Records
---
Amino acid sequence: MTTEIKTVEDVRNIAREKLKGICGVYKDCDGDPRRLCQGQSYGRALGIGGTGSGASFNNNYLALRKYKLKMELIQKDIVPNTFYDFFGRKLTMPIMAASVAGVNSFGGDRVITEQQFCHAVVQGCRDAGTLGWRGDTYTYSLENSYGIDAIAEVGGHGVKIVKPRNQDTIISFFKKAEEIGCVAVGVDIDGCGSYAMATHKKPVFKKSLEEIKELISSTNLPVIIKGIMTVEDAGKAIEAGAAAIVVSNHGGRVLDHTLGTADVLPHIAEKSKGKIRIIVDGGIRTGYDVLKMLALGAESVLIGRDIIRAAVGAGVKGVRIHMEYMQKTLQKAMKITSCRSINEVSPKILY
Amino acid sequence: MTTEIKTVEDVRNIAREKLKGICGVYKDCDGDPRRLCQGQSYGRALGIGGTGSGASFNNNYLALRKYKLKMELIQKDIVPNTFYDFFGRKLTMPIMAASVAGVNSFGGDRVITEQQFCHAVVQGCRDAGTLGWRGDTYTYSLENSYGIDAIAEVGGHGVKIVKPRNQDTIISFFKKAEEIGCVAVGVDIDGCGSYAMATHKKPVFKKSLEEIKELISSTNLPVIIKGIMTVEDAGKAIEAGAAAIVVSNHGGRVLDHTLGTADVLPHIAEKSKGKIRIIVDGGIRTGYDVLKMLALGAESVLIGRDIIRAAVGAGVKGVRIHMEYMQKTLQKAMKITSCRSINEVSPKILY
Amino acid sequence: MTTEIKTVEDVRNIAREKLKGICGVYKDCDGDPRRLCQGQSYGRALGIGGTGSGASFNNNYLALRKYKLKMELIQKDIVPNTFYDFFGRKLTMPIMAASVAGVNSFGGDRVITEQQFCHAVVQGCRDAGTLGWRGDTYTYSLENSYGIDAIAEVGGHGVKIVKPRNQDTIISFFKKAEEIGCVAVGVDIDGCGSYAMATHKKPVFKKSLEEIKELISSTNLPVIIKGIMTVEDAGKAIEAGAAAIVVSNHGGRVLDHTLGTADVLPHIAEKSKGKIRIIVDGGIRTGYDVLKMLALGAESVLIGRDIIRAAVGAGVKGVRIHMEYMQKTLQKAMKITSCRSINEVSPKILY
Amino acid sequence: MTTEIKTVEDVRNIAREKLKGICGVYKDCDGDPRRLCQGQSYGRALGIGGTGSGASFNNNYLALRKYKLKMELIQKDIVPNTFYDFFGRKLTMPIMAASVAGVNSFGGDRVITEQQFCHAVVQGCRDAGTLGWRGDTYTYSLENSYGIDAIAEVGGHGVKIVKPRNQDTIISFFKKAEEIGCVAVGVDIDGCGSYAMATHKKPVFKKSLEEIKELISSTNLPVIIKGIMTVEDAGKAIEAGAAAIVVSNHGGRVLDHTLGTADVLPHIAEKSKGKIRIIVDGGIRTGYDVLKMLALGAESVLIGRDIIRAAVGAGVKGVRIHMEYMQKTLQKAMKITSCRSINEVSPKILY
């Protein structure tokens, strides 16, 4: 039967079945509390919902929807190239899997284990010609490092993001990532508000400029700072020598009522573009959305919740199918807006 | 029993039954993903939904709703005339059926065959005193040309739109249309992003100014360019010598997150009116909506999804009843806004 | 059991039962097509819905909601007086029942007959110290004049509105109203777009300034022109010598996509206040809404759909209870916004 | 089984069961009439809904949602202190329980008695290190003073708010509160529009500046004026010598269509901050919302409906758990926005 899984829709149908009562697996999930999924649960904390009212999650979605794409059709035909160079790796698309972790929080091992999840993401991304990022949560340790293990299986073709734990622990994780040949490492500084980490005796902290500098100097790998929502924080990341930033509000899971990432991205890009790689996540559902983010100043994007659903639906294959769908819709969007390569994407294609 | 079908509502009731689980057949369909139809299907690709999130479809609807109509009542009584001259044909209204094709994608032959559909549209339109356009999709070929065949049955009283295939194929279609006496031909250049065509080895292309000129010079028929969403593309269509443009985003089926057609129409009309015939589609549900489009600068409009539903509901008769409803509501709207003929419709009737 | 009917809610509960599948009898009905009532009927033409998409009905509601009321509390206590003088009649409130007719269109005699309805409205209003207006539709004639008959029963304590039929018929109706001692008569000129009238061989017309003058000079009663949505039409009504205008879009039942009455009222009031009595209807659900309309420049308001529901729910008693509720909420709103009488209501109480 | 109640969600689940058909116990309740709770009841007056259309309730929610919070992460780590000094009492947070009364109106003693409710609020707040306010309604008298009795049980650790009854009655209540050692007393002047009080022969009044002065001079306790929605009323409260104001529209229960409290708070704060303590309620659901209110100029906030639901769900324990949740989310919000203490909260953290 699994041989019949061919489309994003097939994958979603299975995921929907497995996540019954947890997630509606909408193709255009907006985090709105009135959706069926939330109606069913009377607003209880969803495994993959946002914090508090869910407004930050919803704002990511809404911010992106404000921008409109321009059709430009009387033109010579083109076959758009979605190729992307990520720290020397040749990727088929500027779209990678985000560093979500802790899938046990929605349904537990009955649905998918953390190990299976990490494996599916990294392998599925590689199969689609792109790259999976892996994260960190309270169940992770240097001994049980699901993400690094999964990346090791594909020869280091991945990125390891560590929560803002104490400096020594982060550095130890970075070292381990270096040993298995990771493409890059990073810290999701927005994780500093996590209850789960504190509760499980793995406290997390805000990180000062000096601490970030120390982390960067501890490794030869490029270091990525994830969780940038202001021009000021982007400036500090540049000053610290980071290789990239991820404009992110952690999928709306750490602070309620933030702006959407697509709201702040153009401002950050205006000041920082050319000085640092700018990656973004938040509310991206299709290649159409990816194109908008590129036009707003990002060089690539991360996909979070949809990758969870793809992995739950059909493992490695589900992730591959999802990423191929993303690439295909991006390519189509580039064709209709007349962008031959991702370098040609500019704000001109937006209203 | 079919003798009892008299109103648009009767037709819709039957269509709703036949399209259960595919389409809710709302009288005021807005493409919003939260409607019942989408709730039922958990957002799977609907036969007649929009691409991606469905935002472009929804934007057509929303754009049109922004405009308000002005009641002007203390006036001498009038009986508005909705007469429209379309390339010499005397139509009862400036409202024609759009060139939708591929009805097999929602329910297959169980609901309606492509042949039945084409027949219903062309004949139903003629019976209502107007004219049906017919389209193209991967199941169509010069040998199986459902649309042209249907138009031939009514002595050429129709328009044939071809997908942006290779030049030779388009020209062959144009020739065939010329032979059976079509009123006009055209290309829906926005179809260049179609997966279905590519998948079925009938690739589609963007078309350059030169290619469009070549198509126009290949036939004696008026050539219509459908899929114009910018002032620039409209300008090129004029330069190429096209007889008409259709301001259209393909019902939101080719690129997610475009503006609505009623958003771009006034800008295009401002630059192009008088230089080329301007037709528009997208989100038009009633004669009230038609009146707005005329006030925004179009000379006539096309009806897509509602005509599918009418044909599914009651074939030729369903299409006729729907078109008569459109004419009647347009006439009423003209009466209350004090427009005696479609030439008298101006932006003054809008807020 | 009927002796237990005491509150607006009691009345609505009965009406809801009787109108099952036709109307949801919401306390705050907004005409939005996504409400339960429309969900049930898949958007078919509701007995008391708006025309087309229902946008004009919804716009009435939305326009009124844009305005906010100012609480002003540190003040000497007051007991607001809602007294209203309407052409010499002393009413307990500036709130009257609108001239809706044709209740057979939602449920037929099973629910309520036209006769019962007219009786309930006129008598219920009188019992609450106010006054009912009665209308006209294709089932009405000089012989079967339900509205005038009902008004006659209460000694003429009512207003008779006639559809814009031919001049002679209107004048005959006016004469009959004069004979039974009606307070005022009028024409709802927005009724000129009615299909039902035309279909039943009782054609309706737009009325010129001269025709309106003729109607006014045909009777000694004050003449009200209902259906004014522009400053221009208001100016003509004044010029013609009308005694009052009703700012109204006919509850959104004649032209789709008009502005809401609360959108146009302040503009009309600015030019016409002091020159003619200004009455308004559209989207008014509570005394809070009434207060807004007064603040926007109306001297009184009409209640349409809620009165239908009240009459269906509990006849004369239902209408009385509803009107008393309206008066009570108006009085409360006046207290909190510091208005001692309706003459003290000014735009200052609005944000 | 009750030993298993640990989280806000556990408490809500029980409350939802007990309040079936009355309240949906949404985590992010917005008062919108389309929510399940209202759908079930077809818009009948909910025990804890807003007056009229419910717009004022909804406006509180919407006003607060307009503001966005700024993440500021590249910073030295902090452990925010939510300590608050309220008239000399050391509270763990600037969050207190509002003076809601009359819980019998939703479900009666079957759900919770007034006595149990008052006990739960005051005791639960104290257990969480904060303080409960108690109110007044028609079932309260000097003999049956549920609120004061509950406050007496915890040694006066509470605030007693009296409805704007006649001066003598208020002064008697104030005296009784003084005797049991209440922290402060007050009047909710917005209660002057209450039907219930009037109906039960306990009339309520607007209060003039002089009357408020008289009340203040009648007691040694700090006097709080609750129900301020304008700069003018705030000015009068200062002039009268009040110790604090509560910016409040009574949870949208006295006047429909007011602005939200977060709409007016910054204007009031601009004029009055430093001259009087400014407290606010309305639409606050989490510590994220609290932080916004502090940033907009309040020094502390009151929680109404959510405390009712917490008390219904698990009594004293439910209230404690809810308040701890509020404190925890406030602290998290302060961490991510870089506020070490509530005095450091400023408008800079808002967009």
Note: The CA atoms of residues 31 and 58 of chain B lie 5 Å apart.
---
Amino acid sequence: MKLATYKDGSRDGQLVVVSRDLSTAHYATGIADKLQQALDDWGFISPQLQDLYETLNNGKARHAFPFDSRQCMAPLPRAYQWADGSAYINHVELVRAARKSDVPGTFYADPLMYQGGSDDFLGANDDVPVPKEAYGIDFEAEIAVITGDVRMMSTPEQALDGIRLVMLANDVSLRNLIPDELAKGFGFFQSKPATAFSPVAVTLDELGESWDKGRVHLTLQSTWNGRKVGMCEAGPEMTFHFGQLIAHICKTRNVRAGSIVGSGTVSNKGVTGADGKTTWPKGYSCIAEKRAIETIQDGKPTTEFMKFHDTIRIEMKGLDGQSVFGAIDQEIVEAK
Amino acid sequence: MKLATYKDGSRDGQLVVVSRDLSTAHYATGIADKLQQALDDWGFISPQLQDLYETLNNGKARHAFPFDSRQCMAPLPRAYQWADGSAYINHVELVRAARKSDVPGTFYADPLMYQGGSDDFLGANDDVPVPKEAYGIDFEAEIAVITGDVRMMSTPEQALDGIRLVMLANDVSLRNLIPDELAKGFGFFQSKPATAFSPVAVTLDELGESWDKGRVHLTLQSTWNGRKVGMCEAGPEMTFHFGQLIAHICKTRNVRAGSIVGSGTVSNKGVTGADGKTTWPKGYSCIAEKRAIETIQDGKPTTEFMKFHDTIRIEMKGLDGQSVFGAIDQEIVEAK
């Protein structure tokens, strides 16, 4: 099933069930008002939501209304955890190669993750407010999952069973704040403003065979100012699957229902031709990666970061060509 | 007023108002069931809680019952944000001196903070489950505040107005996991398991003159296995006050109601005698600091980290000698 959260002026919005084709929706009132409530008691509540979903898909839900992603908050407008991985090692390799630093061998066995702020997420069509262009505004197109309870010391396989929903994320990053911040040694903080999520979050069965053991085998499209810059394959090059990412968190603590875990920037390796030249036909899921490639090839980056009023659209289509999660489609604006 | 959250089998527990002397409590049922609910609508709900608090203190609350901190969850059993500072630069200086690295000059102007996990906090008397003693188990005695909404780009003075409640924290740390984790460059993650908080959180007026512009001028006591190891002054040596810490978060994002912001390990400078020898008469608020001092003075640490079944008690008394927040009093146990 597909779930979304509609704006109603409250902090957590109203849970709605959305039809498979994203054309209609229905309030889940009477079942659960908020998505967190459903996650807290998933075994009891999700079958009721599933029933409503089927009625909606059959065109028989009496109070259905046209679905409008502009009315969406993030599926979880605020969450108890947002832990983001860097599961595509190719991205790490490129960024490090650009600054002439090697990728430590342990990075291939031990996931890199950071803890993000989760008190104030953006809806899929909300503006992205940033104080200054000079901060180096970048998008990061990612896949994210929402978990149920996963116990401390769970294995990656056990952690896979704890995945409830999948969605897309725009992990907005302020690149020019990152070097000084990481040099302080405590990780990202001011360089990661509010993250945005796709209009709907979907259960695993919606992905069909495209979901395979913690990886989504579909293409993540990123369109910057109307120009398609990324058509990245999210499946085969995901070094750590979502079960491994969740198990990484679980090493020393429980993961509780409603935790959001991100994949990090989806990234594909370049292709080296007979002439020895490498190209990246699948494009990029964040500008930093494009700039890293330019630095490796030309000695310096030429693509600039985002400006106020730039737009970014992030979407993923299923094997049937239909949008799975709806599109993240946002404008960067000056924070006032 | 003083607020706590009683265990009731649910994820968020039940909000109770606790008398000033911590002897009695009263359910806030009919006003607000959960502390987050009160924080979400503080202007409307807090005066009603305050009325109940006064009735309780006057011995006139009809359904009052004896307060028992063992029934407490963390005041916020799970939160939308837990951002912990390192506001006592003396602590940073000692830890860095022990590993012969300087404190960068910027650390005196720009707070050091990390984003912590907030989906699964521990109550004040809950056991601390850790998978292995070899992880290097340490306590960290801290002060923490809970905020209302604070807008992006707020000044430290504006941020001070956003502080709703104050409490104590035990930011449990796994020291032997830290070096490898920080070397990865993304900050703490597995080295910071679930944090515990004091039985009650209190409004600023409860601190009277001990609260001065974002600092708590009282002594934080840490007792390890029954031995008092820390009697640290929390006020004068707090390099960055809570308004500055919150404003640091606000540089690029909004801080939303129910965010918890920590001070980092409370730490006091040593005293150098006429013989040129430095001692630390106020003790320490985490073992890592004691070990840093030993390393600086003797070339190596001799105090070992905590073992399973060790206990740690963290408490702060007001000018009247009474416990302000109740005591964090926990046992370290092996996670199963």
Note: Chain B has a mean pLDDT of 97.
